[in-house]
Design the sequence.
């Protein structure tokens, strides 16, 4: 599938995937610039509010969301947008979507508040319940990770590198959450000959596996669909796999009636 098509102003438009990736990278970078304007504020406590579930919401989330929605709505190919900031949309409204954008304007809000730089802008394209393209932008370091059927890549300081998973058979490295941990995670990692681990926030855990810095990432606790879509696209494009639950059976999928994810397992090896 080298082309994607959509409808804008009742006309059908076609676009090459590589061109669409480049357009989405621009949108993600613009969203990152909006985030960084707020990130440099000396007192982030003044820009933090809390959602109904007590997770933090910053002005940066909202600013980035506006930039991304505007950018996606101006693209030649048009698809519905499901964003974290619009998560109250009912299943009835989206159940018949075959292709749509899945957006987390600021993934790793807790990392943003801690000012450790480990937060990202996530934009994924979902088709028939599976992710087919993903862009992750790291505003604090001006770094891109992106993936599609054309491969997975990292761009940093003007240098573009193709990403491939390690496919290690032993002495594996796990990437673990900087903010979440569970006994179930320890138990599962023991089965995969994990000898060491690194810690990362946000969707950067997927990126660590995609570029071979880690071999396995297991998340037992809940996440939302927009937390995982872009990362899954990049990891799979790099040769990795993402499964539902803690076994290597069902590929992780999207646009469920409940947007809350269960546990998932990411592997950088067969």
Sequence:
């Amino acid at each position: 599938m080298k082309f994607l098509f959509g409808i804008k102003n009742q006309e059908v438009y076609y676009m090459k995937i590589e061109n669409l990736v480049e357009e989405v990278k621009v949108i993600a970078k613009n969203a990152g610039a909006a985030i960084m304007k707020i990130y440099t504020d000396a007192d982030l406590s003044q820009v933090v509010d809390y959602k109904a579930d007590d997770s933090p919401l910053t002005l940066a989330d909202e600013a980035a969301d506006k930039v991304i929605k505007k950018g996606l709505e101006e693209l030649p190919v048009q698809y519905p947008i499901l964003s974290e900031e619009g998560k109250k949309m009912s299943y009835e409204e989206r159940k018949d979507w075959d292709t749509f954008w899945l957006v987390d304007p600021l993934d790793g809000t807790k990392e943003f508040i801690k000012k450790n730089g480990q937060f990202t802008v996530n934009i994924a394209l979902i088709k028939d319940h599976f992710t087919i393209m993903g862009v992750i932008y790291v505003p604090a370091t001006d770094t891109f990770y992106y993936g599609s059927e054309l491969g997975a890549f990292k761009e940093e300081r003007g240098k573009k590198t193709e990403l491939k998973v390690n496919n290690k058979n032993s002495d594996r490295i796990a990437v673990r959450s900087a903010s979440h941990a569970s006994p179930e995670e320890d138990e599962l990692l023991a089965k995969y000959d994990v000898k060491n681990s690194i810690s990362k926030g946000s969707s950067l855990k997927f990126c660590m596996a995609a570029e071979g810095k880690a071999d396995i990432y297991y998340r037992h606790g809940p996440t939302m669909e927009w937390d995982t879509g872009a990362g899954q696209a990049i990891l799979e494009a790099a040769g990795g796999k993402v499964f539902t639950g803690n076994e290597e059976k069902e590929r992780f999928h999207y646009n469920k009636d409940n947007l809350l994810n269960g546990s998932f397992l990411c592997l950088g090896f067969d």
